């Protein structure tokens, strides 16, 4: 055999050996938002079990800014070796591409999908000051008062903005959007009746609903949520086909070797199959919903145009 063939074979064997040994050092998980938020909680919930499966520490690294864009850029530029992952949500992966006119990344072009880990339904809420107790009653009330109902959100272009826009478009309601800097001040004004309607993630919604500070009328998932078992789905409430949920998922830089992708994806599958992880995830307000790499890629491809249409209908745009 010629020397160059021997050299090529040696390099191939060396590469195969290195990939087979993966991982050999800590894995960094980048989150494009500050510590303490829902993505951080999700990462820390999975980290311990993931460390046990992979045999290496999981280090969470916060790169916040521009709606998760800063973190996404950091991961996009990293080596595609499996040692840098991103935990992202609906906003980062499928809303931002339609929201930002000059987004520096493309979801399916610049990243390798690893695993979808959770779906996160929202609750549709009203202030207790409104004389309504069901989503149908609210819709009738709002239709009789076009332009007089305000809905709050955590900010322009986020999921708490777009879900009410989707509901508006599907029902023909005319409500006025009031954007806030985060969900906390929006909740304060909802409780006070300054805004009358809001869509928000289950944990906070359930907490305030149980205290009587807001009234949950429906959840946006296909099935009822364990945190709000007595609250019907939007579909149950008579609005056929309305199912909108956010998601969490892990991605790596584009070009990740297939065997490393498979090993990471399988590891997340094992973690999501743990009964304790499932129970604790539901308590955090997210539904365990594992998809492997290829299925997650197809899911992202299907979700992107759906959310792009919602952004376009809302008129939201960021630079």
Secondary-structure map with pairings?
Elements (H helix, E strand, L loop, with lengths): L2 H18 L6 E5 L6 H17 L3 E5 L6 H8 L7 E6 H10 L7 H4 E16 L8 H9 L5 E5 L5 H13 L3 E5 L3 H10 L4 E5 H9 L4 E5 L25 E9 L4 H15 L2 H9 L3 E5 L1 H22 L5
Parallel strand pairs: 1-2, 1-3, 5-6, 5-7
Antiparallel strand pairs: 3-9, 4-7, 4-8, 4-9, 4-10
Q: What would CATH call the homologous superfamily of the largest domain?
A: Bordetella uptake gene, domain 1
Q: Spans with pLDDT under 50 lasting ≥5 residues? A: 10-18
Helix content: 40-55%
Strand content: 15-25%
Would you list the SSEs in sequence order as H and E? HEHEHEHHEHEHEHEHEEHHEH
Q: Can you tell me the overall shape?
A: globular
Distance between the termini: 58 Å
Number of domains: 2
Q: What's the short story on this structure?
A:
The protein has 319 residues and is an alpha/beta fold. The chain has helices spanning 3-20, 38-54, 69-76, 90-99, 107-110, 135-143, 159-171, 183-192, 202-210, 258-272, 275-283, 293-314; strands at 27-31, 58-62, 84-89, 111-126, 149-153, 175-179, 197-201, 215-219, 245-253, 287-291. Strands 1, 2, 3, 4, 5, 6, 7, 8, 9 and 10 form a ten-stranded mixed beta sheet that branches.
């Amino acid at each position: 055999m010629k020397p160059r063939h021997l050299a090529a074979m040696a390099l191939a064997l060396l590469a195969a050996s290195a990939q087979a040994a993966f991982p050999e050092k800590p894995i960094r998980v980048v989150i494009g938002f500050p510590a303490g938020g829902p993505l951080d909680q999700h990462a820390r919930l999975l980290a311990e079990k993931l460390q046990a499966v992979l045999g290496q520490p999981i280090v969470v690294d916060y790169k916040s800014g521009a709606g998760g864009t800063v973190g996404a850029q950091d991961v996009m530029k990293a080596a595609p070796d499996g040692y840098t992952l991103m935990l992202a949500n609906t906003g980062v992966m499928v809303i931002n591409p339609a929201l930002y006119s000059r987004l520096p990344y493309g979801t399916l072009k610049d990243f390798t999908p690893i695993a979808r880990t959770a779906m996160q339904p929202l609750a549709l809420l009203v202030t207790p000051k409104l004389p309504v107790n069901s989503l149908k009653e609210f819709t009738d009330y709002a239709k009789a008062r076009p332009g007089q109902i305000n809905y709050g959100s955590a900010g322009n272009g986020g999921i708490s903005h777009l879900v009410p826009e989707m509901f508006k478009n599907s029902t023909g309601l005319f409500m006025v959007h009031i954007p806030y800097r985060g969900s906390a001040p929006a909740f304060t004004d909802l409780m006070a009746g300054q805004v009358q309607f809001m869509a928000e993630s289950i944990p906070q919604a359930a907490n305030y609903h149980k205290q009587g500070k807001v009234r949950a009328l429906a959840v946006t998932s296909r099935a009822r949520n364990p945190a709000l078992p007595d609250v019907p789905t939007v579909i149950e409430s008579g609005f056929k086909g309305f199912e909108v949920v956010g998601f969490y998922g892990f991605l790596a830089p584009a070009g990740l070797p297939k065997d490393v992708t498979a090993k990471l994806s399988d590891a997340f599958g094992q973690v999501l199959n743990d009964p304790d992880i499932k129970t604790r995830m539901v308590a955090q307000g997210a539904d365990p919903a594992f998809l492997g790499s290829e299925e997650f890629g197809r899911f992202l491809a299907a979700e992107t145009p759906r959310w792009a249409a919602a952004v376009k209908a809302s008129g939201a745009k960021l630079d």
